[in-house]
Amino acid sequence: MDGARRRAPGFRFETRLEACTISGAATRLERAVDNILDNACKWSPPGDTIDVALADGVLTVRDHGPGIEVVDLPHVLDRFYRAAAARGLPGSGLGLAIVKQTVEDHGGSVEAANAEDGGAVITLRFPPASR
How many whole angstroms separate alpha carbon 101 and alpha carbon 53? Predict the structure, then answer.
């Protein structure tokens, strides 16, 4: 969280965090979280709020940007996938794929969706045995 705040000082991070322990490779897990936070900042209007919640092994990060096009939703977690709207922005299409691989390597799952009132929501779920 601190890294994201340093990299994106113009954003506010609204957090609801409960203590949670995940067994695994700390550096990889930190990178996965950083990737999600950086992605949320990339798609949010400058100065906007990024919502971050952690409870019971479930991490949810929500931005308030344009959301993910329906045609892109099934692919945003794939390696090298670049949505048409992202092709003019920095990035290689690996950020969310790294998140998916890392979370799955730790026995969890990742879901990308759109919030009902706008913006994208990325949810990471870790199994109870990992906590």
Answer: 21
pTM over 0.70: yes
Rounded to 5, what percent of the chain is helix, strand, coil? 30, 25, 45
- Please give the C-alpha separations between residue 70 and each of 40, 83, 84, 118, 122, in angstroms, as whole numbers: 17, 11, 12, 13, 15
Q: Which residue has the tokens 């550096």?
A: 27
Kindly indicate the confidence band of residue 72, based on its pLDDT and cuts at 50, 70 and 90: confident
Alpha-carbon distance of 2 to 94, in angstroms, equals 22
CB 80 within 8 A of CB 92: yes
